[in-house]
Amino acid sequence: MKLNAIASFLLTKAQPRSAPPKAAVVVSDQVSLSGRGGMLEAPPSKNPDVEVVGRFPAKKWAWTERLFDSDPHLKQANFGPRGRQRASEIVEAFGSDTPHSGNVLLHYAGPPPAGVARQKHPVVLVHGANKTGEFWWDPHEDGSDKGLPQKLRAEGHEVYFVSFAHPHDDNFVWAEQLANSIERVKQLTGAEQVDVVAHSKGGAPARAYVSDMREDWMTPYRGDVRRLLLVGAANGGLDTTFRHASSNLALLSQSDSPFLNAPTSWESTKFMGVFPIDIAAASYSNKAGDCWPGQDQLLARWDSKYPIAHWEQDSHTTYHGGEGFVSTSKGIDHYIAQGGHYIDRLNSAQIDPRVEVALLAGDNPNIAGIMNENTGPSDGLLFVDSALHMPSTSNIRAKSVLHLNHKALVSDPEGQQWIGSTLRG
After folding, report:
1. How far from 294 is each of 125, 140, 145, 147, 409, CA to CA, in Å?
2. pTM reported for the whole predicted model
3. CATH topology of domain 35-236+355-424
4. Contact at 8 Å (CB) between 70 and 104?
5. For residue 161, what are the contacts with CB-CB under 8 A and spacing of at least 6?
6. pLDDT tens digits, residue range 67-99?
């Protein structure tokens, strides 16, 4: 496949699309969660209203609500050609397949069965990159619908799960929308606190919220999380696409697969090793309309413990920066700085000591269809050490490693059982 054709696909910006017809709103329930609407007192640093736009019917779970936060810091993010929302119900509820980041969807699994003892604390599930709330319901992504919401609901939990507007948005944006979603769950249930289960990238905004690590415009932590389960979360960051230079070749394919919706660690490549092709718009670079604003925030170096894959083409220049035989990269340090040293900030911040933290990692690198991480113990995507990394000041309640891959941590019965047991324990 010619690289100029590949570059043409990757650099194609998402074209404007006509908005799909809006779903029927079956419950008006238009209230204000903060600000001048007056239903709830506004947090000190939060002025704009957060409105429940409407409640929409769902085919599998009970319903979906769309919340809208009008804070001007929440903007329309750029979507790459593989990054648009695709699930029909998600698109319908958002009103667009490239929704504004002021929007977030809150899904309700439905009431627990009659006769089952009700658990005290509602559960909020937070998905990772390239996913929506539908991933929780169908984590095998094959229509089997054997998800964690159904299991927890059967065990007496009130279960809610979110869908963020952009699949790779800034983690501060996700943290603010998580705060909004938790406030809505508290309003609906009357609970003072919730339990949060965050998978993969979802762990970064969840930790930021309970650590009160925020920008000035954001909602401060309100003491409303009892227990935080971090499942396959990059607590110590990751460097996968920099330590594996050859992973860029898959990302440079012309496939429209959403599984390849990720940034390259190269900013240019060479056709036949001679003719440079600018692919900065497909990279971590934010100079050409960043389509992955939250990904550079997750970067951290692991080369001092696990050597990079030096046998792969351009391994040194990809990781450290420079011009290689087929590529040019600015190196991981450049992009860690571009992301504001987010992981360092996260691990310097202190999780509220009243929050009980549980960590789950996987050590089976057998994810189908991708190049699995194999330079150290990993779940196929991130190192076990990263998933278990946590400041010593944290209130650690549980820490486990299961022989599962990154995705199976939430799709496999063993992983789901660990989560259910940890929530009840």
Report:
1. 19, 25, 28, 26, 22
2. 0.91
3. Rossmann fold (3.40.50)
4. no
5. 106, 107, 109, 124, 125, 126, 127, 133, 136, 137, 149
6. 999 999 999 999 998 999 999 999 999 999 999
